[in-house]
Specification:
Layout lengths: L1 H35 L1
Length: about 35
């Protein structure tokens, strides 16, 4: 049972980190486009 809880917590943490990274990357890409144009 503890393994299932741990696995779920790790999955949720990993997904939230991945979403944060994608949002940061989108901001960086938008900033780069604004500077180059």
């Amino acid at each position: 049972m503890a393994g299932v809880i741990l696995l779920t917590a790790m999955a949720v943490g990993g997904i939230s980190l991945w979403i944060k990274r994608r949002q940061e990357q989108k901001k960086l890409d938008a900033a780069d486009e604004a500077q180059t144009s």
